Amino acid sequence: MSAGPKSAAKKLLFSSSSLLLLGMTVSGATQGPTFCTPNPLIFANGVGNGTLTCPAFVPPVGGATLNSVTINFTSDYLLGSAGTNTVVMNFTPVAPAAGVVFTPPTVVTTVTGGTSSGAAGMGSTTASAGVSTANFATPVTVNVTSAVTLGTVTSSAGFGQITYVFTATPPPPPPPPPPPPVIVGCNASTLTVGPGGIPADAFQVRYFSNLNIPGSSTINISNSGASSTTAFPTQNGNLCVNAFAFSPDEQLVSCCVCPVTPDGLASLSVGGDLISNTLTPGVPTSLVVKLLASTPVTNTLAGGLLAWGTTIHAAPGAGGNFGLTETPFSQATLSTAELTRITALCGFIQITGSGFGICKSCRLGGLGADKQ
Predict the structure, then answer these.
(1) DSSP 235-252
(2) What DSSP string runs through 322-334?
(3) Which of 30, 42, 65, 324 is least enclosed by beta carbons within 10 angstroms?
């Protein structure tokens, strides 16, 4: 029984689906399989020459390294004569650039059947040399010949699909965070009380525990703008947030200054900044951190300090599990004796510590509990 137009269309669709399955056996990051055009390439009476054009490689945003190129081919015929019919089709890709080599250089497919063809002819070729993004930036042309070596057919059809396997270029690392604003005139050893007395939020305290567990404790600092008196063109009210880190035996192990502009956000890592360069060799596993806000240059105590701390605690029950907590620093009453003592100790560290005891500078932006 002869195949009519509907059965012919179904047969071509079946051939295309078979080719798609063949192409999808390639693993890895792929572009394709994508049909070459025309799809299909048809030869009247199963005889003739033609070309398929396979799409070029389009690298993803950010670039890619092209690893391999494979072109899969399928051939078929329609409406053969009674008896046995054989169609042989040759697919020969043309190198898109110098140095590109396909193996095998020509793919030969054979279809044998009766009035309706048997299994579609299938084959593939792979670029074995010259594989690069630049070399496949233009389409690949495939020369195709079709011949009937036995019997007669109404038409033959050739299909092509190209698959590119690539490795995407990893995105560049994010730029380092910008440094905190440069605010001159901050000095944790020369703090004084201004005519207005000590603002209620100028002195804040918090403890940090389990510092021997990586990623345990961070400090995030902001400036509410309470000391600001000028909005434009440049807002004033910058704060010097002076940090004093004490070990459990009341020893000042480090001190430093973190400049914070109004509405800004800065941070300190307790492990990475406060105890990484202590005055003495011993590194405490817990700290009391005192923050004092002051104005630049005059170093008088000022309001507007906001601070939060993250630390780690043993979870209830057995098992050695830990839980993270984040709470604000507590506002505290600052006595004249305490102010004199901590600033004097910081001054002693600055003069005699040979660089030890000066904690690392803060950074712009906040830190999570898993950062050091």
Answers:
(1) ----EEEEEEEE-TTS-E
(2) EEEEEEEPEE-PP
(3) 65
